[in-house]
Design brief:
Layout lengths: L2 E6 L5 H9 L4 E6 L8 H7 L12 H11 L2 E4 L10 E4 L14 H13 L5 E4 L7 H14 L8 E4 L9 H6 L3 E5 L2 H11 L7 E5 H32 L3 H9 L21 H12 L7 H27 L8 E5 L15 H10 L3 E5 L13 E2 L2 H5 L4 E4 L4 H4 L3 H7 L4 E4 L6 H6 L3 E4 L8
Parallel strand pairs: 1-2, 1-4, 2-3, 4-5, 5-6, 7-8, 9-10, 9-12, 10-11, 12-13, 13-14
Antiparallel strand pairs: 6-7
Length: 447
């Protein structure tokens, strides 16, 4: 007997999840994607058996081609397919606004669409990251209102968060422990049964609220640790010490693992999930408590692209160049190395800061083709970009930058300056090649 699964949202979570499930015997999977100018093109690309991602995604291209050819995976914009679905996965974006409040426009819309169409006995699984309490207080209530059915009796509902990362989408789904929390033991068991067919590691079962908390606290924990590393990088810059040497000395102890500083924190998770945790506490907690670490960490991490801009300005002044007259090449606009994902990339505030200062900017990225944030073209040839440039500022440590020819770059630049936001280049080598050098945590602002 065939089980029909609908995965709503063909993004970095929905696509690999759908492809993996479509490779399971007895599963027929349909991706549901809105046909908009921004992302509707994914429908045709996926139905042709190709991946829409430009970055390196081991195994994904081959898996999509396989399940499309097999006839167990296809994508549509027809929401009426929800009527026949046995299992429905929700993988839509859940961003926060400028006031750090969750924006559940897509989540509410798809929950309403599901509720109006789902059959009795269906199972819905929320994979989108949400504030603790959202699955039952938002999604379940909408489903029940629109369907007239009762959650836990007429349909099953669970929350199971993803831990994917661009560049390792399949690996992190298959080989990473999973957490599943249902609104009833039966809901949990049904979700566990499905995930056990594609996940090789242990699957932990709990209730829905605990699963939501595990996701948001996990990412808040990482964000706080990165913020500490970033603040200590600023401390080391001020004292003229290399933070990476300090981290090596600390981490020489086997039970220490200090994180790595950098140009800023991006992606769909870390910049917003701590705020979702905070919102859930305020919205559904029995008393109000302000989680102070979250706010402090977010402030520090948000400051790093601005600090990078200040390093650029300082290096230019050291060579007698005003930032207002400078041509600056931004290396990398994706938030993560060797990927095309630009969500919440630190390049945005860096570019904004440099533009405010009057700089002329050129953007380079080997993986990002289109970017809605800016009117600038994303250039592909590093050396064409560097001609007559006054500064190269590195945001993303794409593998292509590690092998850059420093001698060639110096020969074609107007002012040889490198500002390294990701510890890609060795300071001695860069300075030996004749560059003015600044780097987060290594060579800070010079007075």
């Amino acid at each position: 007997m065939t089980t029909r699964i609908v995965v709503i949202g063909m993004g970095y979570v929905g696509i690999p999840a759908a492809a993996l499930l479509a490779d399971v015997d007895g599963y027929d999977v349909i991706g549901l994607q809105r046909r908009s100018k921004r992302s509707g093109w994914k429908i045709d690309v996926l139905n042709s058996g190709k991946s829409p991602f430009e970055g390196d995604e081991p195994g994904l291209d081959e898996l999509i081609a396989k399940v499309v050819e097999k006839g167990t995976f296809r994508v549509t914009d027809d929401i009426d397919i929800l009527k026949d679905a046995d299992i429905i996965l929700i993988d839509v974006q859940t961003p926060t606004d400028a006031q750090n409040m969750p924006q559940y426009v897509s989540l509410r819309e798809v929950s309403k669409n599901i509720g109006q169409r789902m059959k009795k006995g269906a199972m819905v699984v929320v994979e989108s990251t949400v504030a603790p309490g959202t699955t039952q207080n938002v999604v379940q209530k909408i489903l029940e209102k629109e369907s007239g059915l009762k959650g836990g009796e007429d349909f099953d509902l669970a929350f199971s968060y993803e831990r994917v990362m661009p560049g390792k989408l399949l690996e992190f789904i298959v080989n990473m422990p999973r957490v599943v929390g249902g609104i009833t033991p039966k809901s949990t068991e049904r979700a566990l049964e499905m995930y056990s067919k594609i996940i090789k590691e242990k699957i932990y079962t709990t209730d829905t609220l605990s699963a939501e908390l595990a996701k948001t606290i996990e990412n808040a924990y990482r964000d706080v640790n990165i913020a500490f590393a970033n603040e200590m990088a600023l401390v080391c810059e001020s004292l003229g010490v290399n933070i990476y040497e300090i981290i090596e000395l600390i981490n020489a102890r086997h039970d220490r693992h200090m994180h790595i500083p950098g140009a800023g924190v991006g992606g769909h998770c870390l910049p917003k999930d701590p705020w979702l945790l905070r919102f859930g506490l305020y919205e559904y907690g029995s008393w109000k408590i302000e989680p102070e670490f979250i706010s402090v960490a977010r402030r520090i991490n948000n400051h790093m692209p601005v600090h990078l801009s200040n390093l650029v300005e300082n290096a230019l002044l050291a060579r007698g160049v005003s930032v207002h007259d400078a041509k600056i090449v931004v290396l990398g606009v994706a938030y993560l190395e060797n990927a095309d994902d630009t969500r919440n990339t630190p390049a945005v505030p860096l570019i904004g800061s440099l533009q405010t200062k009057g700089a002329t900017l050129v953007l380079h990225d080997p993986y990002v083709h289109q970017w809605e944030f800016t009117q600038h073209e994303i250039e592909r040839d590093l050396y064409d970009c560097a001609k007559d440039a006054d500064c190269l500022v590195l945001v993303t440590k794409h593998k292509e930058y590690f092998d850059a020819d420093l001698e060639k770059l110096k020969s074609i630049m107007r002012t040889p300056i490198i500002v390294d936001g990701r510890n890609v280049w060795d300071q001695k080598s860069v300075e030996k090649a004749g560059f003015e050098y600044r780097a987060v945590g290594k060579s800070g602002i010079k007075r």
